[in-house]
Amino acid sequence: MASQGMHSPVEQFEITPLIELSFGGYDISFTNSSLFMLLSIVVSGVFLIMAMRRGELVPGRMQGAAEMMYEFVADMVRSNVGSEGRAYFPFIFTLFVFLLFGNMLGLIPYSYTFTSQIVVTFFMAAFVFVGVTIIALFKHGMHFFSFFVPAGAPKVLIPFLIVIEVISYFVRPVSLSVRLFANMLAGHTMLKVFAGLAVMISGAGGLAIAGSLLPFLALIGLTGLEVLVAALQAYVFTILTCMYLNDALHLH
Amino acid sequence: MDCKMETDMSKNGMVSYLMLVTVTCYGLVCKSGLAFADGASEPGLPQLDVSTWPSQIFWLVVIFGVGYLMMAKIITPKIGNVLEDRRIRLDNDLGKAREATAEAAKIRAEYEADLEAARNDAAAFARRATAEAAKTAASVEQKASKKLASRIATAEKKLAATKAEAMENLNIVAAEAALDAVKELTGLKATKIQAEKTVKAAAAAMFPQEIN
């Protein structure tokens, strides 16, 4: 496709520095990825503050939406972690809002999806993983390691089960980060491929313009699907974080 | 990513500890990323270009940290307060409504009781009045019928006397007629007493019941 003057569908994921910065030998430039992280926080923050500005007893549409988001996450924390999860609610809420707005803003043409960066999702997942492990160690001490021994298993199987449990525990940050990253990568690549196809076919002129309708219609459908995926993956990341936190606080 | 996961243990100790962990994670990922970058010169995906990793992680930590502070200090308390106020208000209103309902039920019960008592009173009064009226009516009727009976008796007696007198007169007339008839037909003379006796006997034979 590149030979025909088309862009590669993965070119959209390229990082371009907007403000060059470096610190201690590391390149810490403010990039398009950083810009959309900032936008995600700013847009969500402005939306929530504007919506709750008056804090009316009977909410309007904006306030209703903001409250719905709050209640959604609060219910998630309450039902998955319990009352002990209250202290972590602001973190879980920030996580959900950050990912939701990041994914949604990324769907706007010419914008950038920072959640399609494995390093971003992996760092978040690793932070959650390390965080919940430390919480578990603080709370349960050495008893934490009983987490790796399934209750009621036959004695012969226990060594194998411990190995499996340990592996599954350490795979958590990988699966958590790769799920979000891969969904975003695949979704946006597919959108770009279909969009590119539509442009390419119509570029042939004549009857081909009618033919380009097909990938274009597919693109519309896929965009709807990607909106769903954007919300769903933010939800999945958040609810899994809640579950890991629950495991840390209550073990089994 | 910031390090604001708090437990109910020592908050500050926890926060600084998590801060340390974040920095360590950051260092490790960047170091290994850069080491990896030395080997692979041109990765296919831009995501695997590790030279961009330090900047992405750095800005993620900064921006998410600021976002966390904003959410934790301003936004979630605000929304939480609004929801809490609404819950309290609703609870109060519901409590008031429940009280009012209870009071209404009490008033209603009182009213029903009053109504029931009044109904009972009225029924008792009606029963008493009916009984009295019946009694009066009975006594009046009794008196009236007594009076009536005595009047009937007097009238019957009078009637009987009148009838007897009339019968007597009739007998006399009949006896005189019989005397005249006997004189005309036979030329015989009968005494008045004889004639009267004969007529009486004949009348008694003809109307036995009317004599007495």
Q: What's the number of structural domains of chain A?
A: 1
Shape of chain A: globular
Strand content of chain A: under 5%
Q: What is the percent of helical residues of chain A?
A: 55-70%
In total, how many beta strands of chain B?
0
Topology:
The complex is a heterodimer of chains A (252) and B (212).
Chain A: E1 17-19, E2 22-23, E3 26-27, E4 30-31, H1 32-51, H2 61-80, H3 89-106, H4 118-140, H5 158-203, H6 208-211, H7 213-250
Antiparallel strand pairs in A: 1-4, 2-3
Helix pairs in contact in A: 1-2, 1-3, 2-3, 3-7, 4-5, 4-7, 5-7
Chain B: H1 11-39, H2 53-186, H3 192-206, H4 208-211
Helix pairs in contact in B: 1-2, 2-3
Describe this entry's structure for a reader.
The complex is a heterodimer of chains A (252) and B (212). Helix content of chain A is 67%, strand content 4%. By secondary structure, chain A is mainly alpha-helical. Chain A has one domain. In chain A, the strands form two sheets. Chain A has a two-stranded antiparallel ribbon. Chain A has a two-stranded antiparallel ribbon with strand order 2-3. In chain A, a hairpin with a 2-residue loop joins strand 2 and strand 3 (26-27). In chain A, helix 2 (61-80) packs across helix 3 (89-106) and helix 5 packs antiparallel against helix 7. Residues 1-5 of chain A have low confidence and may be disordered. In chain B, 16% of the residues are buried. Among the domains of chain B are: 11-37 and 46-100, no CATH class; 159-211, no CATH class. The radius of gyration of chain B is 67 Å and the shape is rod-shaped. The interface between A and B is large, with 62 and 56 residues.
Task: Give a nutshell description of this structure.
The complex is a heterodimer of chains A (252) and B (212). Chain A has helices at residues 32-51, 61-80, 89-106, 118-140, 158-203, 208-211, 213-250, and strands spanning 17-19, 22-23, 26-27, 30-31. Chain A is mainly alpha-helical.
